[in-house]
Amino acid sequence: MDGVMHSPTTLPAMPGMLARSLLTLLRNDESEADAEKIEHEYSLEALSEKRIAAYKNMFGGFVSDIPLSLFYCLAQRTHLAQMLDKRFPWPAPGLVHLNNRLEQLERIQPDQPFYIKASVSVPARGPQVSPRRLRPKFEVSFYQDNKEVVRCVSTYQVMKAQGNEAPRAKKPESKIEKPNWTYLHHWQLGSGLGRRYARVSGDFNPIHLHPYTSRWFGFNKPIIHGMYMMARAQADIERIEGQSANYIDVTFKRPVILPARIRLWRNTESPEGYEVRNNDNTQVQLEGKIRFPS
To answer: Which Pfam families does the annotation name (predicted)?
Structure first.
């Protein structure tokens, strides 16, 4: 591993951080500031067989012994620890996940703990900066035996309060017509799925849990975690390929409000490409790429 390994701090547990994250709602820093990078180092215990099994069972099984998508759950725990740093200027609940890339670089040792090297690139901010440019990028690298085994890169959008705006008229939606795409599976997502996934992933963001709490964020019903869709697609496509994925890159296009019926599509001309679409085939909810060892 490049550089000197310092004494990392133990990565805090998720429940305590979730409670503390509510206090970040008091942050309201509108002052001008240059871009900066905030860096941290953490230690993390080895993944337990029980946790790996619970995660795999959530999706009907993977080909992977340790699914790559599971590492986002660990990365997200790291993200939240970084958001609690006083140098991070925005409320943790006010961030929307835009895209995520995961890459496996070496074999993962199931019985070995992790050293984590994490950074968040905080963009320049101030009264003259467009809200759309407020997109912090989190990079998390997992090491075992001084080797980087997994890398996770995530981009979020800071959501700023908006004034009362007249609702926009909805445009008529037409069927998506894309050559060389084939429908693979449909997924029936129940109203309580967000709570089930939260217990497995540790992501108890209120927007996913219950209508009473999702209303805090402008949704009358909870929305499913974007990373649930990514993980389910990984499981489905791995079973088709009979291989373990070593690269996943997704962009979240639209929220999926629960309950829902959605569909997984795959590009037959470029098989690494896939999409999650609504049941009517008029909207793309997620765009993704998945790769396997050559």
So the answer is: MaoC_dehydratas
